[in-house]
């Protein structure tokens, strides 16, 4: 099952990457706060419309009316314990029903939202290396924990220089290098593992750029979270190669905070457009 | 004053930015404000003071004569050079407090690195600041809660600045003249600015996160099984299994517990002996180091268990991988307070440190940055100490760039510790045998000190080129330097001469018979009479008996000679003659002023005794300045001719105030040295 999911996500990532590059290419040329605000606004409105057409609007409307009525009852009959308790119970039931009615639209939305977030993560989660900046490159190897580590090397290139390594971490079956970026642009690192050759892309520059922090192995969750590069197959001697790109510092489009900002801003825009599209949430 | 100017004031600009941030509260990202956009201002006049701790007049003159300090030489030719009288005793905390108050120790109450509580007989404490334990708390299970509000009004523990009197910047502050100090000694925690025109980054005296003046942590395969404290450091063992080992970095103690425990952060080391390198994993950081490599600053999050959500305190440290094969050795710098999120008050105003950190990121925040303890304890080799000290200087030069970029007018003070702490370890101005180095090595490292003076000359050149004709510039030191060849144990001498009992006493903190003891030594230069009514077990009556012992001890001390017949002590100063002012309560009765080459023994500082009175210094700490004030004066350079004869540290504050057109307060003893 997991094998099938891994294959499925790999296939899905191909068109999503093409679409993501086309739709979000403008992130590279506008300020981070602006791009995330625009994307949040559009996403908020689109998700609102999806919600409208995938949810039971009539039932939701009825529940909301019911809640309103019982809130009114709470106000009017606050001297009557029995009415108050009954009204509170109905309000809670209403809240629960609203949650229940949102399950179906959420099931419709969850896949596109996760794909959207994984695409946005490529832009916002980290920043590219600057020239002369250093980063760790970690290769996780397949195989038994107690098996000897194979010979591993990196092909020299003008774009980078290996400062330290390879350092073999036997306990974790990892090989680690400290790499120094030398040339701006999108580059490829080529590794040798015994007879095999594998690649990992890396980016040097300023501003916003699509960054693949990890070339994943054959795990569907990892492939979903790191969609840009083709995953290593199940028989590959390598499980993954990751680069510790620096954090991007910003409350709106920086590491981790971009997600918080995205959810808040998309909710705000969804609420703002709720009356326009006549959606009941 | 500020409002009359057309240029945008830095503080106003920051306030404006804060307002804009609120207005764009929806989350607009604002760029930090610094670097030329805001300027510190002060009545159009500029005074720049560069404090070069320990810069010695003899060596300076020698290097100027040899043409190695062209910028200093230029000032000397213009009449802007003088030997600068230092404090009694010439210890940095005392000397810098003299500079700050424009008056002697009687005004500021700092007489030595170490003071004692006479009401507890002689319990020592650090003179510059003291952490008071606090009063009142509630015990809730394992925790103690201090609620510092009504109706509980518990007093939490607090670190208080012990320096008394009015610092000279308070007068500038009152006159609305901006002053900014970087790494100012003897001012931790930094004193508050009443009018908001004073900013200060605290220097010497600022503790690390363990509350000490700097405690490194050292991990090695041959270290002790249980963490062992050594003066200024902790040693622990690392045990490797499958080339992986685990250790703990000790952090600040959790004082919210009834029984305070140290916080700690776990780390894992994976080594690759073939690559001669190791990967360190600590919290979210992964650090790859090859043998002989330093890491950048690493932020550590120390978690303190308290009732409710745990408290998080941020500290920073650097790793240095000393050795991988045979005996793995890893040095961890003292855990400094994180300047980007400091739990300590490092600056006045408190947010100043964040402004600096926004620009310079992370840097040393403890007062003593060069890890001389690591060298003294043989954790560092000479080269390793030099590399660490060089890094400190680089950081400080970056801080100087920041200081100059953000300076427009008013007073700018900048302090360099490198000339002091590197001199303690590398100065050896003699052909005689060095305590721990060969003659060649001693020469080589003394050459480094001379190059360091050259670096200071470059700094002066840069400041002169930018402000030579726009500012009054002073380069000054708090004292000079001398070789430290021989140690004198004051308490052993007192014991051997019948002033301290019993004859087999080992320490004034442990086994002294106070009923028979007349005097004791504590600190580097202090000698105290065991005075009735002051010391809790005092035996010497005030008045004639006190006078007798003070005079007798002073005369006998000044007569002490070494094996070669050389006098050891230049002068034993009577505090009641040399000190005046309102803050003399904790002053020693005699301040022992040693001749060059001599100093109090290491044991003396905390009251220890041994078999010998005089013996060789066998420490890497091979030079010192805790001698007599006349033996180790400082230097003063200025781009204005120095008119006064024999200027001293206490003259600088009055001179600076006069430069800004202010009067000299009556609390100051010094005078304006730029005017005859």
How would you sum up this structure, described in words?
The complex is a heterodimer of chains A (281) and B (676). Chain A is α+β, with helices and mostly antiparallel strands. Chain A folds into two domains: 120 residues, no CATH class; 110 residues, Immunoglobulin-like (Sandwich). A five-stranded antiparallel beta sheet of chain A has the order 3-4-1-8-7, with no helix packed on it. In chain A, strands 2-5-6 form a three-stranded antiparallel beta sheet, with no helix packed on it. The longest helix of chain A is centred in the middle third of the chain and has 44 residues. The two termini of chain A are 35 Å apart. By secondary structure, chain B is of the alpha+beta class. Among the domains of chain B are: 130 residues, no CATH class; 137 residues, no CATH class. Helices cover 24% and strands 26% of the residues of chain B. Chain B is built from 16 helices and 35 strands. In chain B, helix 10 runs antiparallel to helix 11. Chain B starts with 9 loop residues before the first helix and ends in a 17-residue tail after the last helix. The chains are: A alpha+beta (281), B alpha+beta (676). At the A-B interface, helix 2, strand 3, strand 4 and helix 6 of A face strand 16 and strand 17 of B.
């Amino acid at each position: 099952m997991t094998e099938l999911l891994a294959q499925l996500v790999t296939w899905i990532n191909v068109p999503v990457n093409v679409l993501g590059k086309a739709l979000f290419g403008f992130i590279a040329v506008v300020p981070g706060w602006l791009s995330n605000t625009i994307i949040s606004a559009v996403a908020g409105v689109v998700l609102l419309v999806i919600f409208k057409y995938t949810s039971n609007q009539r039932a939701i409307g009825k529940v909301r009316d019911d809640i309103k009525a019982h809130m009114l009852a709470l106000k009017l009959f606050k001297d009557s314990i029995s009415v108050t308790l009954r009204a509170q119970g109905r309000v809670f039931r209403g809240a629960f029903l609203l949650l229940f009615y949102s399950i179906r639209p959420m099931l419709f939305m969850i896949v596109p939202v996760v794909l959207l977030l994984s695409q946005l993560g490529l832009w916002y989660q980290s920043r590219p290396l600057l020239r002369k900046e250093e980063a760790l490159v970690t290769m996780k190897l397949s195989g038994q924990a107690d098996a000897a580590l194979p010979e591993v090397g990196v092909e020299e290139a003008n774009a980078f220089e290996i400062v330290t390594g390879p350092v073999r971490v036997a306990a974790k079956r990892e090989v680690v290098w400290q790499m120094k970026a030398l040339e701006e642009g999108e580059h490829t690192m080529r590794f040798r593992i015994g007879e095999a050759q594998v690649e990992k892309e890396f980016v040097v520059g300023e501003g916003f750029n699509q960054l693949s922090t990890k070339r994943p192995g054959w795990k569907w969750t990892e492939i979903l979270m790191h969609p840009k590069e083709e995953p290593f197959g199940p028989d590959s001697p390598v499980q993954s190669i990751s680069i510790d790109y620096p954090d991007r510092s910003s409350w709106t489009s920086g590491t981790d905070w971009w997600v918080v900002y995205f959810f808040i801003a998309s909710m705000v825009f969804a609420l703002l457009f709720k009356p326009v599209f006549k959606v009941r949430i | 004053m500020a409002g009359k100017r057309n240029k945008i004031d830095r503080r106003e600009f920051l306030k404006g930015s804060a307002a804009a941030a609120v207005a764009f509260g929806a989350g607009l990202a604002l760029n930090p404000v610094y670097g030329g956009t805001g300027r510190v201002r002060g009545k159009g006049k500029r005074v720049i003071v560069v404090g070069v701790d320990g810069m010695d007049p003899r060596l300076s003159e020698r290097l100027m004569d040899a043409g190695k300090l062209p910028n200093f030489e230029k000032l000397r030719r213009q009449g802007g050079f003088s030997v600068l009288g230092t404090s009694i005793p010439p210890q940095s905390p005392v000397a810098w407090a003299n500079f700050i108050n424009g008056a002697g120790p009687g005004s500021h109450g700092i007489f030595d690195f170490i003071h004692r509580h006479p009401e507890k007989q002689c319990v020592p404490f650090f003179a510059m600041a003291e952490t008071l334990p606090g009063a009142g708390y509630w015990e809730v299970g394992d925790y103690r809660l201090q609620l510092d509000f009504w109706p509980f009004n518990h007093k939490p523990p607090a670190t208080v600045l012990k320096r008394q009197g009015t610092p000279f910047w308070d007068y500038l502050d009152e006159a609305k003249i901006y002053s900014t100090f970087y790494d100012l000694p003897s001012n931790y925690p930094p004193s508050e600015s009443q009018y908001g025109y004073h900013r200060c980054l605290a220097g010497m005296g600022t503790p690390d996160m363990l509350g000490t003046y700097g405690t490194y942590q050292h991990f090695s395969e041959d270290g002790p099984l249980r963490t062992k404290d050594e003066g200024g450091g902790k040693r622990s063992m690392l045990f490797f299994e499958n080339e992986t080992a685990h250790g703990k970095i000790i952090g600040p103690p959790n004082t919210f517990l009834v029984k305070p425990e140290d916080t700690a952060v776990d780390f894992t080391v994976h080594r690759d002996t073939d690559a001669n390198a190791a990967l360190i994993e600590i919290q979210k950081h992964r650090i790859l180091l090859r043998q002989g490599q330093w890491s950048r600053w690493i932020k550590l999050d120390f978690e303190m268990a308290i009732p409710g959500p745990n408290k998080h305190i941020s500290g920073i440290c650097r790793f240095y991988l000393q050795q991988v094969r045979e005996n793995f050795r890893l040095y961890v710098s003292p855990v400094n307070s994180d300047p980007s999120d400091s739990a300590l008050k490092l600056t006045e105003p408190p947010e100043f440190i964040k402004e600096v950190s926004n620009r310079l990121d992370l840097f040393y925040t403890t007062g003593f940055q060069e890890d001389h303890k690591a060298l003294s304890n043989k954790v560092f080799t000479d080269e390793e100490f030099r590399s660490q000290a060089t890094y400190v200087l680089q950081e400080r030069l970056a801080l100087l760039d920041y200081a100059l970029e953000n300076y427009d007018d008013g007073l700018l003070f900048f302090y360099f510790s490198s000339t002091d702490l590197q001199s303690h370890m590398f100065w050896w101005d003699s052909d005689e045998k060095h305590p721990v180095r060969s003659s060649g090595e001693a020469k080589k490292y003394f050459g480094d000190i001379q190059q360091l003076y050259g670096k200071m000359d470059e700094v002066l050149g840069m400041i002169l080129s930018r402000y030579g004709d726009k500012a009054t510039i002073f380069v000054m030191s708090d004292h000079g330097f001398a070789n430290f060849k021989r140690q004198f144990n004051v308490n052993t001498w007192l014991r051997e001469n019948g002033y301290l009992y019993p004859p087999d006493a080992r320490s004034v903190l442990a086994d002294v018979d106070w009923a028979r003891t007349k005097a004791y030594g504590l600190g580097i230069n202090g000698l105290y009479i065991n005075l009735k009514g002051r010391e809790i077990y005092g035996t010497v009556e005030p008045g004639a008996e006190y006078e007798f012992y003070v005079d007798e001890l002073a005369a006998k001390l000044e007569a002490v000679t070494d094996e070669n017949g050389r006098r050891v002590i230049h002068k034993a100063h009577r505090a009641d003659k040399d000190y005046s002012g309102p803050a003399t309560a904790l002053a020693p009765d005699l301040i022992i002023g040693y001749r060059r080459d001599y100093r109090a023994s290491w044991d003396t500082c905390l009251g220890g005794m041994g078999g010998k009175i005089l013996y060789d210094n066998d420490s890497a700490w091979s030079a010192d300045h805790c001698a007599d004030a006349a033996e180790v004066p400082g230097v003063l350079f200025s781009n204005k001719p120095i008119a006064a004869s024999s200027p001293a540290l206490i003259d600088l504050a009055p001179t600076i105030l006069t430069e800004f057109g202010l009067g000299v307060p009556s609390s100051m003893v010094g005078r304006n040295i730029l005017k005859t």
